[in-house]
Structures are given as structure tokens and as C-alpha cells.
Amino acid sequence: MTPTGATAALVLAVLTLAHHASLAAAAGPRVIIVGAGMSGISAGKRLSEAGITDLVILEATDHVGGRMHKRDFGGISVEMGANWVEGVNGGKMNPIWPIVNSTLKLTNFRSDFDDLASNVYREKGGVYKKAYVQKRIDLSDKVQEGGEEHSAKLHLSGQDDMSILAMQRLNDHLPNGPSTAVDMILDYFKYDYEFAEPPRVTSLQNTIPLATFNDFGDDVYFVADQRGYEAVVYHLAGQYLKADKSGGIIDPRLQLNKVVREISYSGSGVRVETEDNKVYKADYVMVSTSLGVLQSDLIKFEPQLPTWKVLSIYQFDMAVYTKIFVKFPKKFWPEGKGREFFLYASSRRGYYGVWQEFEAQYPDANVLLVTVTDEESRRIEQQSDNQTKVEIMEVLRSMFRDEDVPDATDILVPRWWSDRFYRGTFSNWPIGVNRYEYDQLRAPVGRVYFTGEHTSEHYNGYVHGAYLSGIDSADILINCAQKSMCKYHVQGKYD
Ligand SMILES: Cc1cc2nc3c(=O)[nH]c(=O)nc-3n(C[C@H](O)[C@H](O)[C@H](O)COP(=O)(O)OP(=O)(O)OC[C@H]3O[C@@H](n4cnc5c(N)ncnc54)[C@H](O)[C@@H]3O)c2cc1C
Ligand SMILES: *[C@@H]1O[C@H](CO)[C@@H](O)[C@H](O)[C@H]1NC(C)=O
Ligand SMILES: *[C@@H]1O[C@H](CO)[C@@H](O)[C@H](O)[C@H]1NC(C)=O
């Protein structure tokens, strides 16, 4: 090839590239995604795969992952938010599981609750007899089975839905309190520890049976990896955003520390304004912030969202689930098979009730996890960590009254409810609310689209729900942008 020929070829190549670049920019619409948690990152991936690559992701915090977030705690990395892959070893594959267990090989442990009957502590110390506790567990399992049968017969509209509490009453079981301390903590473990709200407010029809366990299996795997459960979100982000060698996202389309405060929308486009007074314009916006954030006034919509949308946002509950990690100079609790989970049967329902030790996960860390929910969570978020530590020490010294229980050296109390970027931990399904309200919660308003855990068709409250909702909501946007199918059909409540 002559030098001139080579130059001509080069010029042609450059022209072709430029042509493609301008085509790409012109072909796809510009989409702003608000939030870089699991659902926002998942939606962005789906849009990219459909050729919509002109994206800007605005994230309020300085990191990706949202409610999947690790924190250093006395030399180990613990999860402030999601910890388990829930729903494994069933008929269908939980989409998160292969990423965790095969692709990234995050260290994980199947949680074994089978010996719980041996690990229920009396309010004033020592454990209950196993046979007695087992009988109470069997009874509550039987009542739940009755609830499943009942649930299957209810009208799909939700008009006959009832609380789990009412279902228990129909089955002559009243564990909710005031009741025996054992019945209360077993009830708390079964329902509040999963849904973060009591059976009094939780829908029977939509939680028993629960689609997550029905579809994906009953097993749950605890992720305890120094890379954090959030590595799953970074992995998905790295599939369409530029990442550095260590997996950090360096793509300019991801903008951190950008707090969205206003979204204006019209027939021709959207305008998004952040707290630092920057303005972003686009064809569409995808809002992935939590239900708690939507229920707050953090983001102003202009014009205001229509009444049906606001009502659907308030139909659902944002629950609070608080994982308190405590570190000790030495261990004073039992270890070994079947000892990982233990319960404290307080006469005050849900008072520092569910405990987990980490012999397998963090062998020499001397760390315990105690979980509280709902009103206890809110109470604890509003007091000093020192006060919480005092309460925890008192509980532990009651449970292990014959042991030498040293003071905790460190405590970690996440505050998801007080955090204006979350306002809670995950959505819970209230009584009588059904597909109809759910479709409304997910439905776009003009050029404003919605995604997130709370919009997941079957798996609200979970990591896999957030992941799948990102795909679903992106598909709704793609239908409009690429096929001009912009009408989103919400099925009537009684259809
Ligand atoms: C304590 C806790 C325990 C949990 N345990 C489990 C578990 O064991 N297993 C499980 O499957 N699931 C669990 N979950 C639920 C799971 O973590 C969530 O369902 C999922 O991570 C939600 O993802 P998302 O994308 O819907 O929301 P988010 O993760 O909340 O993402 C939304 C993003 O938007 C950002 N944002 C908010 N406001 C703004 C704004 N104004 N401007 C810009 N950005 C904004 C947020 O910072 C966040 O990054 C748990 C959650 C918590 C909190
Ligand atoms: C997880 O991965 C390991 C190692 O590849 C494998 O042996 C194990 O069966 C997997 N677990 C499940 C539940 O799929
Ligand atoms: C908590 O207690 C420790 C020691 O008891 C003390 O050093 C610390 O200042 C206290 N912190 C707060 C916020 O009260």
C-alpha cells in the first residue's frame, strides 16, 4: 500500500467511526437514571443492551450499591444492608445466585435454622427445654399451613385479604402478645424477622405463601465476603460502564454525589435538577429511589404527580430492619453446629430478640449480630449508640447470667430510617392491596419511569426483586422509545 493509500484508508476509518458515533448519539434517546442501587444499575444495563447508551446515572451518595453496602467493623467487612441471597435450591434459579456463587464466588454460608428450639433464652437467663419450644414451633408451622390454604382461596382483587394476625386468630392461635414470651419471639422470628413489620399489618394473601421461596427455594445463603455483597452491583455496572482494574466505575455517565431535588416533565422531555444546582435534560427519566424516598419530599415533581400515583406510593409500607453488630474482647456464647442463630424471649415483643453468631463467617472477630425492626428500630435510631450498648449489655448479661460477659468494645448501628436517601430498609405488603395498586406504583407518569425493589412484580423487598424490576421497568421504557408503545396498561382492580 502506498503512503497515500494508507492515509486515505485511515481517513475513511476515522470518518466511519465519527459517523457511527454521531449515529449512536442521535439514534437512542437520552435517559437519566436517578440512583445507582441494584435496580438503577440493572435498568441501565437493560437499556444499554437495547442500544440506549446515552445515559446519565445520578447517585446521591459517593458509591454504587444503595441498600447493598458493606462497612468496616473492627477489621472485618460487614453488611449494613442486604446480607442473604434469599430463595435458593428451588425449582427456578434466583438470578442473583449464579452471580454470587459462580461468577464472583463471594464467600457464602447456608443459614441453618433447624436447631432453633435448643437456642431460645429465657428472659432471666438459661435456655428453655427443647421439647417445649419445638412443640410451639410445630404449632405455629401448622397454623401457617392453614394460612396458606386459606390464602389460596381469597379473591385476586385483595378484597378478602386479611392480616396474618387475623389468620392466626381464625386458627385459634394468638402468639402476638400479650402472650408467652416463647410464642412471641417465635412469632417475631417467623414474620417480623422476614418482613420487618408485625403480623398485624402484613398481608396474608401476598406473603403466605411467599413467591420468593415458592419459586426459588427455601434456602437462604449469607454472604460474608470482604468485597461485600455490593460486588454484585459493581459487576453488573462493569458490564456496560467503564471500570478500572479493581472494578471501580470510572465511566463519566455515572455521576456520584448528585442529589436529585427536582424533576420537571412535559410531553417533550424531562429536566432534572440536583442539589448543587446543576441541570440535566433528557428524553426520559427513570427514578429508582426507595419507596421511603418517594414518600418524603426529597424530590419535587413538576407538575406534581397525579393523585392516583401519590395514593399508590402511600398504599405501601416502608419497613425498617436494623442490624446491630457488637464486638467483644472474647466469646461467651456457645458455638458449634446448630448454634448460629439464637433467640431472646423477652416479655417485650421484639426487644433484642434475634441473634446470630459468626464462628463460621468471621472466626476470630468475636462479633455478634442482633436484629430489631419497626418501632424498636425507630426508637434505637433516635438514641445514642452508647445507650443502645447499655441495653444490649443488660440483655446479654441476663441471657448468659452464669458467664463472665465483658463489655462490648465496639458497636455498629445502621440508621436507614433517618437517612434521607433511604427512609427505611425495604417495602412490606399491606392488607388488601393488590396487583392493581402495584401496577400503579410501577406505572410511568408521562416521561417519568419508576423502578426499584418496591415495583418488583413478585419479589418486593429483595435484592433479586430490585434486579428484576430494573429489567422490567427498562423494558417498559424501551417499548415507548423504540416501538412507540407508550401506553402502559394498568389492569382494573376487579378485572
Ligand atoms: C438492612 C437491610 C437488610 C436487607 N436484607 C436483605 C437480604 O438479606 N436479602 C435481600 O434479598 N434483600 C435484602 N434487603 C433488601 C435489598 O437490599 C433491597 O431490596 C435492594 O437493595 C434495593 O435496591 P433498589 O435499587 O431498589 O434501591 P436502593 O438500593 O435504595 O437504590 C436507590 C439509590 O438511589 C439513591 N438515591 C436516593 N435518593 C436520591 C436522590 N434524591 N438523588 C439521587 N440518588 C438518590 C440511593 O442512594 C440509592 O443508591 C435488605 C435491605 C436492607 C436495608
Ligand atoms: C456453590 O458453588 C460451589 C463451588 O462451585 C458448589 O460446590 C456449590 O454446589 C454451589 N452451591 C449451590 C447451592 O449451588
Ligand atoms: C460513649 O461512651 C464512651 C465510653 O463509655 C465515651 O468515651 C464516649 O464519649 C461516649 N459517646 C457518646 C456519644 O456519648
TrEMBL record:
GO terms for biological process: spermine catabolic process; thermospermine catabolic process. Residues 38-477 form the Amine oxidase domain. Residues 1-26 form the signal peptide. GO terms for molecular function: flavin adenine dinucleotide binding; spermine oxidase activity. FAD binds at residues 39, 59-60, 260. It comes from the Eukaryota. The keyword Signal applies. Pfam families: Amino_oxidase. Pathway: Amine and polyamine degradation; spermine degradation. Its cofactor is FAD. GO terms for cellular component: apoplast. Keywords: FAD, Flavoprotein, Oxidoreductase, Signal. Belongs to the flavin monoamine oxidase family. PANTHER family: AMINE OXIDASE, FLAVIN MONOAMINE OXIDASE. This is Amine oxidase domain-containing protein.
